[in-house]
Amino acid sequence: MKAVLSIALGVIAAIGGFVDIGDLVFNAQAGSSVGAPALWAVPVGVVGIMVFAEMSGRIVAVSKKPNFVLVKERYGTRLSTFTLAASLLLTVLTLGAELGGLGFALNYFFDVSVNFFVLVALFAVAAAIYFLPFAGIERVFGYLGLALLVYIAASLKLDPDWGEIGRGFVPEAHSAAVYWYFVVGLIAAALMPYEIYFYSSGAVEEAWDPSDMTVNRANAFVGFGLGGLISVGILVASAQVFKPAGISPTSVGSVALIAQQPYAELGLILALIGILFAVGGATVDTAFSAAYNLAQHQGWRWGKRFRLLNEPRFTISLVGFLLAGFAIAQTGVDPIELTEYAVIFSIPVLPLTYLPILLVGNDRDVMGEYVNGPLARVMGWLYFALISVLAVAAPVLFVWTNGGG
Amino acid sequence: MAGVLGAAAKNSGFMTRRGTVIALFACAGASLAGCGGPITPDELARSIETLESTAAEGSLLAKNVADDHSKATFVRVHSRDLADEVQHEAEKLTDAEADRADLAAAKSDAIDLADRIGTALGQMQTAPGSESDARTAEQALSRLSEGAKKLAEGL
After folding, report:
1. Cβ separation of B85 and A250 shorter than 8 Å?
2. B24 touches chain A (CB under 8 A)
3. What ipTM, to 2 d.p.?
C-alpha cells in the first residue's frame, strides 16, 4: 500500500498532463480521425517524459533544485525571463481551459449552468489547495482520476483488430498532413512543460533525497506509464466507436459517450468521474506550476510544505493565477480549443524547458555519482533533438491542417 | 499556407526568421478568421461533415437512451451541446455567400438538414428519459447523418 501511495506525484503529473480537458478530446479525435496508425506517437511521448521526469526528480534529490531554478541558473536573466513569460502565458491559458472544463464536467451531473460550475470548481480547487496537504492533493486528484482506466477496459471489451493495434505501434510514413498533426500533438501532449515544472517542484515539496531514487523511478515510469495507457485506451476505444460512425468528437461529453458503449451507465459514470478528477488534477498542476515558476524565478520562498499564510508572495501569486484562469473561463471560450492551441504553441517553448535538465543531469560536478549514465544521456539528447524538430513542425502543421480539421 | 510562405520567400529572396514568424501568424490569423469571400466547396464540405458527425453522435446518444443505458441529466446537457453546435453551423452556412448555383443548392440543403438535426436533438433534450422518443430520434438522426454524408460526397 505504501508503495502504491508513493507514486501519487507521478500519477497526478501524468494524468493532469496527458488527459487534461484538451487531451481527452484530442486523443478521441486522433482515434476517430486517424485511428490505430497514430498509436505509436503515445509511447514516443511517454518515454520522453519518463526520461526527463526521472532526470529532474534525480536532480532534485541530489541538488534540491527544481526545474525553474535550473532555468534561471543556466540561462541568465533575459532568456530565463522570456522562458518564464512564455511558460506563464501558456500555463495560465491552460489553467483557464481546465477550470472551464471542470464547469462542463460538473454540468453533466447537475445541469445548472457551466459558468456557475466554473465558480464552484474555483472554490473547490482553492479549498483543496488550502486545506489538503500536498500528498493529499496528489492522492485525491491522481487516484480518483484513475477512474479513466475504464477506457483501457473499454478498448479491450470493444475487441479491436489486434493485428491493426500491434501495427499501430510501429511508426510508418504517411503523406497526410492530418496524420502528422495528430502524431505531433500526441507526442507534445505528453511533454507539456507544466508537467515537468510540477513534477520537479513536487519532488522538492516531498523533500526527496538520494534515498528516494527508487521512488523517483517508480513515479516517473509507473505514474507516467499509467497516463500513457489511458491515452492509448481513449484512442483505441474512440477508433472502435467513433471512426466507423463518422463521428468527430468535439466535447468532453463525446469522450464520456465512448465508455458508455461497452459498459452502459456504469461506463458513463466512471468516465465522468475520471474526467472530473483528471481535469481537477490538471487545474491543480497548472495553478501550482505557474506559482512555482514565478516564485522560483524571483527567488521567493515557495511551497505547500510551508503554511501558505506564511508565504504571502507565493500565496498571492497562486490566488492571482487561479483568478486569472477563472476570468479566462468566464469569457466562454471553448476550453477544448484553448488547450489545443496551448499544446501546439507550447511546443516551441519545450526546448527551453528541457535543456537545463539535460545539462545539469549530465554535469558530474553537480550530480556526482548520480550523473546521467550512457543510456539517460543518449535518450536525453535524442529527445531533445526530437523536441527541437517538433518546435518547428507543430505550428506549421497546425496552420496547414486547419487545426487537424 | 505554402502559397503565402512561398510568396514571402520569393519577394525577399530568402525567409528571414522574422519573416517566417510573421507569415506563420498571418496564416494562422487568416485560417482562424476563415478568410472571408464566397464559400468554397471544401469549406462547405467541412461544414456538412460537421453536421454528419453531430447527427451520428446524436444517434448514438439516442440509442443509449432507447436501450436504457444512460443518465437523463447527461443526455439533456449533451444533446443541448450538440444542438448548439448544429445551430452554430447553420448560422455560419446562412451567412456564407455561394457564388455558384450548385453550391447555393447544396448550402440550402445543408441548412435544411441542420434544422432537422436540431429538431431531433431538441426532442431528446425535452424528454431525455423517454425510450420511445429516443428510438424515433435515433432513426431520424441516423438518416440525417447519411443524408449529410451523401451531400458532402456530391460536392
Report:
1. yes
2. yes
3. 0.89
- Sign for the CA dihedral angle at A316, A318, A324, A326 comes to negative
**Is A159's Cβ below 8 Å from some Cβ in B?**
no
In this predicted structure, the answer to whether residue B93 has a pLDDT above a threshold of 50 is yes
CA contacts within 13 A on the Cβ side of A247: 29
How would CATH label the architecture of A2-400?
Up-down Bundle (1.20)
Q: Which residues of B6-45 are buried (b: 16+ CB within 10 A; e: fewer)?
A: eebeeeeeeeeeeeeeebbeebbeebeeeeeeebbeebbb
* Pair (B19, B69) in one structural domain: no
Contact list, B141 vs chain A (CB under 8 Å)? none
Whether residues B69 and A109 touch (CB distance < 8 A) is answered with no
- Of residues A185 and B117, the one with the higher pLDDT is B117
The gap between the terminal CA atoms of chain B, to the nearest Å, is 23
* Mean pLDDT per 10-residue interval, chain A, length 405 residues: 73 79 92 96 95 96 95 92 93 95 96 96 97 92 94 97 96 85 88 91 95 93 92 97 95 96 96 96 95 96 90 96 97 87 80 94 96 97 94 80 64
Cell digits of residue B117? 438535426
Look at residue B128 and tell me whether its pLDDT is greater than 60: yes
How close, in Å, is residue B94 to chain A by CA atoms?
A: 21
Which residues in chain A have Cβ-Cβ distances shorter than 8 Å to B117? Answer: none
Can you tell me whether residue A115 is helix, strand or coil? helix
Chain B residues with CB-CB distance to A265 below 8 A: 69-71
pTM surpassing 0.80? yes
Burial of B110 (0-12, 13-18, 19+ CB in 10 A): buried
Q: What distance in Å separates residue B1's CA from the closest CA in chain A?
A: 6
Query: Which residue range is the domain that position B21 belongs to?
Result: 2-33
Cβ-based contacts of B52 with chain A (< 8 Å): 246
Of B27, B52, B73, the CB nearest to A109: B73
Amino acid at site A401: T
Burial class (CB in 10 A: 0-12, 13-18, 19+), A265: middle
Does A250 contact chain B (CB < 8 Å)?
A: yes
Residues B86 and B143 in one domain: yes
For chain A, the domains span 2-400
A395: which chain B residues are within 8 Å (Cβ-Cβ)? Answer: 24, 28
User: A186: which 3 cell numbers?
Assistant: 500526441
Judge if B90 and B118 occupy the same domain: yes
Give the per-residue pLDDT at A1: 65
Q: Which residues of A touch B28 (CB under 8 A)?
A: 395, 398-399
Going by C-alpha positions, the residue among A323, A322, A6, A335 that lies closest to residue A143 is A6
The one-letter amino acid code at B93 reads L
Q: B28 to chain A nearest CA, in Å?
A: 6
* Residue A341 touches partner B, C-beta closer than 8 Å: no
